[in-house]
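Appendix B. Worked example

We walk through a single record from start to finish. Start with the input: the chain for methylmalonate-semialdehyde dehydrogenase (CoA acylating), Chitinivorax tropicus, length 498.
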Amino acid sequence: MSTPTVKLLINGEFVESRTTHWKEVINPATQEVLARVPFATPDEIQAAVAAAKAAFQSWRKTPIGARARVFLKLQQLIRDNMADLAATLTAEQGKTLADAEGDVFRGLEVVEHAANIGSLQMGEFVENVGSGIDTYTVLQPLGVCAGITPFNFPAMIPLWMFPMAIVTGNTFILKPSEQDPLVTMKLVKLALDAGIPPGVLNVIHGGEEAVNALCDHPDIKAISFVGSTRVGTHVYQRASLNGKRAQCMMGAKNHAIVLPDANKEQTLNALVGASFGAAGQRCMAISVAVLVGEANDWIPELVAKAKTLKVGAGRDNPDLGPLISCAAKDRVTTLIEKGMEQGARLELDGRQVSVAGYEQGNFVGPTIFSSVKPGMDIYDQEIFGPVLCIVSVNTLDEAIEFINANLNGNGTAIFTQSGAAARRFQQDIEVGQVGVNVPIPVPVPLFSFTGSRASKLGDLGPYGKQVVLFYTQTKTITERWFDDAVTVGKVNTTISLH
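Next comes the structure step. The output line below is what the pipeline stores for this chain.
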């Protein structure tokens, strides 16, 4: 039986690539080859962009209500197919079935928000800004836009991108992660079933060459990216130099402050869940716990809770599944070894975990270090695995200063029962997304994802109100109409509108 091939989507048709460069999609729990994904040729990328450019001319003038109804239908199709989407996501990415459904659901929320575009894409109007002169603004689509998505959320992040871009009147080129594109392609098929016309949504696959082609193509007006800091910085610089808008959500090192007055049971549960869920492969994972004062006495109980987590294949719905690849596992285990070498205290070692029946899986169990300091690789680097670093400080002020000294600014949290401490924290912390007794403060789509500092390049975030501005150009019209019965006076050479 031959291995299935992942198709390209060009001008409404799923087509077989003519490339000679392919990559295998691997089940990270079993090493089973699920499919082969093509690295699209330059001609195929050009054809996708050309289809999007041609489709833009009619799609941009499609009534806003008609665009909204496409996404009303898509959200229902996603709900109807939730179990199948989650199973596919789990097979190729590794996360548990429950977490896979959460991945799809958080994207579904953005689809629902897109269906409300009629109230989101409104301009402004003021009558009589001058004598008989009115001024108004409209938010018009840019043209062809592109999105580059990562392996860790192959449903949610594509759904962050193409629905909002398309519903605002743009056409779109999506480049999913080549490591797990299968669930993304199922979502794309559902989008076509919901009524997205040919050419409005196109999909290419590939690696660095495909990314560069999207950054360089003169007909692409904007690029959205989620992924590593290294690639995101490259995308932002290259796209910007080519005159494009770019928004890049990148790496993180998210800290949670724990004050001694926090509810111990709730806090420990939150830390363990946010650190080790999805095997730590979240850009919003809590990877550093900053324990203040007597909260340092909680380390043994934190370790005990982590030991209770079950590691296994995602389809068996354990607490955490495997890492995405053998290379990812090797990188995480190497960083654990470096942490020990550089003086951190290994409180819990997850390197030797074994899962019966899945001996080839990329498993690393919950791992906890204490006595962690800046300068250690486990602190300075985003591990992107189930590793929690513990830092000990004496006061809240020390904790805030410590977090602000880190370059990244994706998310942070504080656990406390003191309103005064929480208020000081949220005012003084220099991080874009803040949780108060909430470990992963990713906002719902009524608001915008607001990562900051080295975790983000570009002014406007994905989804929410900000992304409507990202995918549109504000055009301001000042107009005056004369009554034929009114005689116009003399020539006026001043700047006044009166």
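Two observations about the output. The chain has a mean pLDDT of 96. The two ends are 78 Å apart (CA to CA).
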